[in-house]
Amino acid sequence: MTDTSWTVYCCACAGFGFRKEEDLVQETVIEKRNSQTMLTLDLDAKWKFSKIGVWEEEIAEAVAPEFDDSLYETVSLPHTWNAEDGTCGKEGICYRGNGLYRKRLMLSYGEWGQKTVYLSFEGANTVAVVYVNGSMAGRHEGGYSGFRIDITDYLIWGQENVIAVLVDNSETAYIAPIGKEGDFTKFGGIYRDVFLLGVDDVSFNLIENGADGVFVSPVLSEDGREGNVKIHAALRNASAKQRQLNIFSVLKDREGIEVARGSISLKMEADSVKEVEYFIGIANPHLWNGVRDPYLYIVDTCLVLEGEVLQNVITETGFRRYDIFGNQFYLNGQPYNIHGVNYHQDSSASGWAMTDEEREADYAMMIDMGVTAVRMAHYQHDPYEYQLCDRIGLVVYTEIPLINRAFSEEFFVDRALFAENIKQQLTELVCQNYNHPSICFWGISNELYDTDCETSKLYTELCRLALSLDGTRMTIYADNQAGPEYVKRSCAADLVGYNRYDGWYYGEAGGICSWVADRQEEDSRPSCISEYGAGGAVTQHMDLPGQNDIIPNGELHYEEYQAIFHEKAWKDIVLSKNVWGEFIWCMFDFASDSREEGDTKGQNDKGLVTRDRKVKKDAYYFYQSVWGSKKMVHITSSRYQMRPCHVPEIKVYSNAETVELFLNGKSAGVRNARKEEGCSTIFTWENIKLLQGRENVIKAVAVFCDGSQEIDCVSHPSASGGRW
User: Fold this and answer.
1) Are both 279 and 409 inside the same structural domain?
2) Sheet containing 194-199: which strands, arranged edge to edge?
3) Which residue segment(s) compose the domain that 12 sits in?
4) Tell me: the pLDDT tens digits for 452-506?
5) What average pLDDT score do residues 172-193 get?
6) CA torsion angle for 620, 626, 630, 634 (degrees, to 10)?
7) pLDDT reported for residue 34
8) Angle CA 573–579–583, to nearest 5
9) Are residues 123 and 192 in the same domain?
10) Active site residue 447
11) Tally of structural domains, the chain
12) Which of 277, 447, 560, 660 is catalytic?
């Protein structure tokens, strides 16, 4: 957070020359932890929902507490109204408009009456207007960040309260992404969790930018032997009295054992807000070291008034330092390979209304493939995702939805309102996710075409804003354009990413890094490949397809070509060594309502796994063989069920020393791992003949350097001729 107007206090454990403060808070505070008076209520269950028109009279009637909503659908949150039409395709209609949620809630004065009460939303797309008992309590614009609405003055204690939330995912001219920009379905609804929070008049500031009011910054000395945790606390005193407060933080290791503590005493004037800072020192901290060792500490921060804990915030944190020198990413002074994927929040069952269990399964597949980093495309993701990445060790590149255009030629854009809103979205992204050690990059834009002076000015302001909010992380943007005007527009960013589809939409497969090398002559900033990929339809197959055999924007997306594309792209990346990381587009097929291509409608099929998560495509196993650490073997084209009798090539991916192929029980030969860099995990057998009129069983036996084996087996019914 910015250093402006901070009150600085010293740590409770000596380190980096800070003086030691003792006995600011009595030990009895820890014993009183159970007396905390912050209340939390899960509000996900039993909402009434209906799509609704835009007429003011209709909305006013529907948000009124006496409105009869018995004909509304009963839903649970997270929820989206586009779960079914979100993949409608070019000829369908994906509803973008108003939806109304209503919930009845009774709160007792004895429990909630002395509290400030917030409705806390983790995400609603795009505009949300909150009504309580018929009165508008607040409004939030932006579909991806969390927000809180103070509803205290609108509640009636001991009686039924009616909460109504009007959500609108219509195209807008000032909320990014504007209009139709962004090649993905904009699911409408309250698609993340909702809670009710109750805090005392004195509390951490929960209303400012939707954050929790406690910002934790672990800092390492140059040699890594000294750690210092900076605690920045944002406070509010809504009472009519001056208050003498203590804030007390305990640093605990992964087992929950206290290792250090720090505290601060301060006075707060009546009806005021204040920000303070203090430090906790620790010797020889255990480092957060990515997927190698994602070690996390716990910071338990308590706000204390007259010996009573009013509120406590639990924060997981990690000590780590990262740098980029030349074309290499370093984590804690050691080279660390950034092998990444792009990831949209999306599932076939519920669109954006994903469950935590679905997220866990998705990230488990990433880890199984050998991923070390994730780009959360193209907006702020669910809070639990960032927490997952902290815990499993993935480096995170997260971004705001400044996509394609900062203004539109289709309709008028209020550029002042647009600038205000995109700055708000950046502020919320940083403030709500500041505490996550996994995050290394704040993304400013994706494929932004505008280079006019006003957009360039806005771009510089966004980069400076990110720096003022968080001077510990780098800013980056992803571009698919080249030229001095793009470099000039985005010169305030620290890093550049290139979105390249050589071998799919244009150029030749394996030509990405030569294009990047040309750009690096114009722009010396460290660069990564922020997107690269090809479509893969799991029902479409062809032996040895070439680029001329596929139709990128049409029907033919052979799964075999997707795998060949990635083999060539990976070899290009390995041999060129001119980027510090790469992010595949993308991990899973996802909803894009205007597309019709490959064997799906309303989806982008460049994922390494199908949208329903049932099929890992061949390209997934290729990356598992080159990125992953677990022993594996995979026979490609296993879904090619109408394969010709004469097979020009059978291909196997494995990280073994040797692989032997068997056809119908007979050995077709042993292949040794290639010595050629970038393709050592590809094993091939040429001119294999399947038996016509019977099932053919193909088995691959992989032998590793320790003598262990892994086996894969597939069966093919043969056919004469035919492509897919």
Assistant:
1) no
2) 39-42, 194-199, 116-121, 147-150
3) 7-31+205-317
4) 999 999 999 999 999 999 999 999 999 998 889 999 999 999 999 999 999 999 9
5) 95
6) 50
7) 35
8) 70
9) yes
10) yes
11) 5
12) 447
